[in-house]
Write a structure and sequence with these properties.
elongated, six-stranded mixed beta sheet, 10 strands, alpha/beta, ABC transporter transmembrane region fold, four-stranded antiparallel beta sheet, 2 domains, about 65% helix, Rossmann fold
């Protein structure tokens, strides 16, 4: 909540004038019942049919107060809406930037669905809290306290009927506020689970339908949905306690006021005008008290959401930049030195991996599913830091490179990459302001120029979300063009040719060797044909490096490599 207040500070002067306007309008609302009672008790009895000027005067004054209240409250509400919108726009923008700065490990801890929920529903809850607090948060207390003060001055005896109920109302609001925040935090965590389920289902909808698992997914979703519904019910049941209890207290107070008021009027202790004025103020107090309970309800949700957003901001820099030191003399271009890594810090994903690679060479990585191929790539890109060992680039510890300097060296195509719903040109350029020549050359190297040329709009052809209007092979070639267009020092291809036929795959490798011979390539592949011409091939199994060398050497010395070659090519690779 403290962070939200920090976002409000730049609007301090703006809020000050908004609150002044809101206060003026609220005071006008309080003055009207007083004028009404004054007219009934003092002005009307002294007027004659020939002299109604005082009634018109005070009546006009009431109309003026009503107009001022209307204009000022409307103006203040518009200013409040602008303030809440501006604060949340900045908060959402900063939160998005913070999320982009999180390391892969931190993203794993939060989970993507939770971050999506914090960016969307939680910021919306905070927006609702700010809007409600600054629209009604000043008006309701002024009406509430102002009504009590005026009623005490007008009819102190009748006011006691209300003051008796006040402690009960305070206890109810305290209970609701204390338990509401905790329950809404629990509810939001279950919203995260629902977002996760929806996201997974939509991502894998084709597989789900192909395997006839639609009913299973419905049942799983229903379980999560019921759990969320129960959590929401519990939270809203607690919040719902406040309105009926406070309404009951105020209605009992109203009944007491009517009975006592009738008694006091009958015996001449008070006047009908005072009773009418008192009842009007009591109605104002009733409405403002109910508004205050709604404010506490909205604040319970908003504070819970603000705490969840703040958790993201409190995450510290995970991948720190270390001192560079002196580069090692005559060091290889890229070196993994006894590198070990585990995602959960218990079960090793990579164990004691070591190899060296010279500039311009090609590294091939092969192995079974889950053997650590992609993990090795992620360590190279410094999405994670190794638990043990060291990764060196040009003789320097990878951790000593600033992020931007390190990222500029890479061109990457991941296993599950993405394409934007925008023209092909934008997907290849990717906001790097590349020249037309660079993009065309990259498209040719990626074997994409042929199918792009057949499109009516060429590079201006607009893709749908995730490139769904392209085939799998076409999508991979666009992604390859994007990676090659920046002419990277290190080209990382993580199973990026799986949808290509053997002929296109061979043409792609030949184009990379010819047009990007200065680039160091790191290729993860399932096909031996994609890496058998690499300068160095790594064979991984259960996170361990069980083979390292050329194609011919591994064919003789590594049984796993030989089995893969035989299963794919019908012969032992030599």
């Amino acid at each position: 909540m403290k962070r939200i207040l920090e976002y409000c500070k730049p609007y301090g002067l703006y809020l000050f004038f908004t609150l002044l306007i809101k206060t003026l309008g609220t005071v006008m609302d309080l003055v009207i019942p007083y004028l009404l009672g004054y007219i009934l008790d003092w002005v009307a009895p002294r007027c004659t049919p020939e002299n109604l000027a005082p009634i018109f005067y005070f009546g006009s004054l009431m109309i003026l107060c009503a107009v001022v209240a209307l204009v000022t409250n409307a103006a203040a509400n518009r200013r409040t809406a602008f303030f809440a919108k501006s604060v949340i726009a900045r908060l959402r923008s900063d939160c998005f930037r913070k999320i982009l700065s999180l390391s892969a490990r931190q993203t794993d801890v939060f989970t993507v669905p939770s971050l999506v929920s914090r960016m969307s529903s939680d910021t919306y809850s905070v927006h609702g809290m700010l809007n409600t607090v600054f629209r009604a948060g000043l008006r309701a207390p002024i009406l509430f306290l102002g009504g009590i003060i005026i009623t005490l001055s007008v009819e102190p005896v009748l006011s006691l009927s209300f003051l008796v109920m006040l402690p009960i109302m305070v206890l109810v609001v305290t209970f609701v506020s204390r338990h509401g925040i905790r329950l809404f935090k629990t509810k939001q965590k279950k919203v995260d689970k629902m977002v996760e389920k929806i996201r997974d289902t939509f991502t894998g909808i084709r597989v789900i339908k192909a395997l006839s698992k639609v009913d299973y997914e419905k049942e799983t979703f229903e379980k999560i949905n019921r759990d969320l519904s129960r959590s929401e019910k519990t939270a809203h049941y607690v919040i719902a306690v406040s309105n009926p209890v406070i309404s009951m207290c105020l209605n009992l107070g109203t009944a007491a006021v009517i009975l006592l008021g009738a008694y006091r009027v009958f015996y001449g202790y008070t006047s009908p005008g005072q009773i009418l004025s008192f009842m009007t103020y009591f109605t104002i107090i009733l409405n403002s008290a109910l508004t205050l309970t709604r404010i506490f309800s909205v604040c319970s949700r908003g504070i819970a959401s603000a705490d969840r957003i703040n958790e993201v901001f409190l995450e510290r820099e995970d991948l720190k930049i270390f001192s560079a030191g002196e580069p090692e003399a005559e060091a290889p271009y890229l070196e993994f030195r006894d590198v070990s890594f585990s995602y959960n810090k218990k079960t090793p994903t990579l164990q004691n991996v070591s190899f060296t690679l010279q500039k311009g060479q090609t590294l091939g990585i092969i192995g079974g599913t889950g053997c650590g191929k992609t993990t090795l790539i992620q360590l190279l890109l410094r999405f994670y830091d190794p638990d043990k060992g060291m990764i060196l680039l040009e003789g320097r510890d990878l951790r000593s490179y600033p992020k931007k300097e390190l990222n500029r060296r890479f061109g990457v195509v991941f296993q599950n990459d993405f394409l934007m719903a925008s023209p092909l040109r934008d997907n290849v350029d990717f906001c790097r302001e590349l020249s037309e020549e660079q993009m065309q050359r990259a498209a040719e190297s990626a074997q994409a120029s042929e199918f792009i040329g057949r499109l009516q709009e060429g590079m201006d052809h607009t893709l749908t979300t995730k490139g769904a209007n392209l085939s799998g092979g076409q999508r991979q070639r666009v992604l390859l063009a994007r990676a090659l267009a920046g002419e990277p020092e290190i080209l990382v291809l993580d199973d990026s040719s799986s949808a290509l036929d053997y002929k296109t795959d061979a043409a792609l490798r030949e184009a990379i060797r010819k047009n990007h011979k200065n680039s160091t390539s790191v290729i993860v592949a399932q096909r031996i044909s994609s890496i058998r011409h690499a300068d160095l091939i790594l064979v991984l199994e259960k996170g361990k490096l069980i083979g390292k060398g050329s194609d011919a050497y591994l064919a003789e010395t590594c049984s796993v490599y030989r089995e893969i070659a035989q299963s794919q090519m019908g012969e032992v690779a030599v």
